């Protein structure tokens, strides 16, 4: 699919066709990261920051804490 770079105020803009947005699972007002890599412009969805409640909801309760051996002291560590 081809498009044209057009003037938008003091900047330049590219319109993203709806089928492209749907294939990339992007919607209007989604935040994206734009970078240049090997002379290509790459647009990727911005990482969404999850709330503490969202992180806790994903917790599987499968973590088991335990002690581990770090070896014998090599200096003036306090025991």
Key traits:
elongated, Pemi-like Protein 1, Chain: D, two-stranded antiparallel ribbon, single chain, 16% helix, 79 residues
Unreliable spans are none
Number of helices: 2
What is the tally of beta strands? 4
Strand order of the largest sheet: 1-2
**CATH architecture annotation of the domain at 17-58:** Ribbon
- SS class: alpha+beta
- Whole-number mean pLDDT: 89
CATH topology of the domain at 17-58: Pemi-like Protein 1, Chain: D
Relative strand content: 15-25%
**Broad CATH class of the domain at 17-58:** Mainly Beta
Span from first to last CA?
66 Å
> In angstroms, what is the radius of gyration?
24 Å
Please estimate the helix content.
10-25%
The geometry reads as elongated
**Sheet of most strands:** 2 strands, antiparallel
- H/E series: EEHEEH
Task: Tell me what the structure shows.
- This protein has 79 residues and is α+β, with helices and mostly antiparallel strands.
- It has a domain at 17-58: Ribbon (Pemi-like Protein 1, Chain: D).
- The protein contains two helices and four strands.
- The model has no long low-confidence stretch (mean pLDDT 89).
